[in-house]
Amino acid sequence: MLNAKIIIPIATAIIFIMISIAGYNSSQKVGNNDNSWLVKIGNKEYTLLDYQEFYNDLKNNSSLPNNLDLKSYAFDKLVDAALIEKEAEEIGLVISDNIIKEELQKISSFHDENGKFDKKKFKGTLKRNGISENKFIEKMERFYLRKQLMQIFTLNRGVIYPSIIRILNSIIYDQRKAKLITIDELDIQDNIIASQEEINKYFSENEQIFTIPETREIEYVLLTTDSLEDSVKIQDINDDEVVMEYKKQEKYLEIPERRDIEQLICTDKKVVDMAYNAILSGKKFDDVRNKYETPYEYTRSLKKISPNDYFNKILTEILFSLKEGDISRPYQTSLGWHIFYINKIYPTQKREFFEVKDYLINEIVFNKNQEKLKILTEKIDSDIKKKISFEEICNKFKIKSHNVHVQMRYNKDYTINNNEDENKKFDNVPKVIQNLAFNTKLLDISELEVINDKEIKSIRVLSNDISKTKKDDNNSDLQKESIGYVLLKVNKIIPKRLVRPSDKKLEKLLLDQKKYNLLTNLANSIHSTADINDQSDSNIRKDFFNSLKKLVNKPTDINISRIQPMPKNIDLELLGEIFDLEPGKSTKLYFNNERKQYHFAILEDINYPNNNEVINSDYEKQLTEFYFDIINDEYLQYLHKKYKPKLNKSLIYNN
């Protein structure tokens, strides 16, 4: 049984690339000065035009939190992409033309009626979306380049380059010594008061958080293949159809030629030349490798490599031009000098019909039902244009509707006047429905909005239609990315309104803010008194403890690392922040509601291990386990320190 995820998701991701570029070309620009740089690394500049691509792509991403500062987040993603591209350039990573060509041919939107890539359809689709061919190909290349570098593992097989091991070694095994400072809330309660004048001023200066946002009552319907009365079932598909589909997809279902390759790495050019000559003289590759290789741990054997794997173009051509038993000339990378030995060649392998039959049946069912769904939505769209009512449409096509309240969010602050349950209720409304609701006039019917599989599932959760969501998850290995539609009507609009809480509640909020500001200012005073080069207690905390000696509990020593259990009863976010500090610096202030304490930490020292102390037979396994949790953030932090990008973030807010 063929796992459809092997074939489908990458092509689907490229469709989103196309959508993001189309959004970029058709949307309003962020600013007028599009050529002003926002990010600069070396001589390369990234402008507002580059930023706009990320902004438009994220703007349509329904999985992002509603209270996210989208401009700032898009800027951060642009910086990440710039760093990744710089690192890829430095290590010589290139995505081959063959990979782009093959992935391009998998995109079903560019296929003809026989399921084959149609260049005319490809160009026509791009033209309709206002995208140039070069721009689309460039976007694909950047997509795969970033994807591969951030995956870190060579060939997606859990094998890690030695240079990456050395980088991550310090990330994972560093030991950090810190002091934890705690202050009991009650100890500062009596020292802070709020006058009526201050309470009134606090309310007037913070009206936004006391404003109940505009709320809309809507009725919506979700249209998926489950909405079809005459949907196609697996049992409706005959063998002739499956055989025909097999013949259409036969080429795409082949397993490409693969190779087992041994490699030898030397950091010294003279040594690698000696090794190369020794092999040519008839000595065994393993014997030569044991004698001449640089003595550090690296991946000796590369198993079942295909031309589609993410080597750079030149190296791919070298490895696949050799015959079984051949060796390559010395080849230089950022790791050193390599000699490759072709140990075994596995020829292109045809997948037999019985291996892929189940997959093909599901493929046919999926395509037929998506076509039926498209016809249904065209009929509904026609009725909308004829001004047929929402209720009549639901009755005519036997579609169940759902009612929900949608609230406009202004920024990351939740309104004080909503309780926690109300805020949670509004946050559970998918972003696609929120956007549609606030782009539709009172008593109007929205346009049919195309939604992806993730959005379908989030709307089903909102509708309490969990059974279908679970069914899809259980069959996910045989399903493509689904496409659905959502349609809604705005029944009522409740305008935003300012509501003043009681003076007692306002006083409590103001006192809490005063306490927090006081303690934050005291905590920040550490930065001006700390001597980073001197780790003694007196220099780091002298002035601070003098000002807090009546309030501060006895400081607690904590020693933490990522490979040891974290101390209990300490905020995990605080512990995580310690890993971003330099010695002598403090975390921000945190409040532990259960213990009624404010606390923060001062980093005193960092101890990095010697590589030889930790590299052992279990190292790659340990690193693999840590990879998924830390690699993205930590590797990007490493790239920030390595390349020191110049940033001009204010430009996105000034335009």
Describe the overall structure.
With 655 residues, the protein is of the alpha+beta class. It is built from 24 helices and 17 strands. It has four domains: 4-167 and 642-654, Triger factor/SurA peptide-binding fold, CATH 1.10.4030.10; 175-205 and 501-607, no CATH class; 214-237 and 356-495, no CATH class; 258-346, Chitinase A, domain 3 (Roll). The strands form five sheets. It has a four-stranded antiparallel sheet with strand order 14-3-16-15. It has a four-stranded antiparallel sheet with strand order 10-5-12-11. A four-stranded antiparallel sheet has the order 7-6-9-8. Strand 15 (590-592) and strand 16 (597-607) form a beta hairpin. 21% of the residues are buried. Residues 1-34, 152-162, 410-414, 469-479, 527-545 and 612-631 have low confidence and may be disordered.
Care to give the gist of this entry?
This protein is an alpha+beta fold and 655 residues long. The protein has 24 helices and 17 strands. It is flat.
Biggest sheet layout: 4 strands, antiparallel
Tell me the CATH architecture of the largest domain. Answer: Orthogonal Bundle
Q: Return the average pLDDT rounded to an integer.
A: 75
Q: Which radius of gyration do the C-alpha atoms yield? A: 30 Å
Distance between the termini: 53 Å
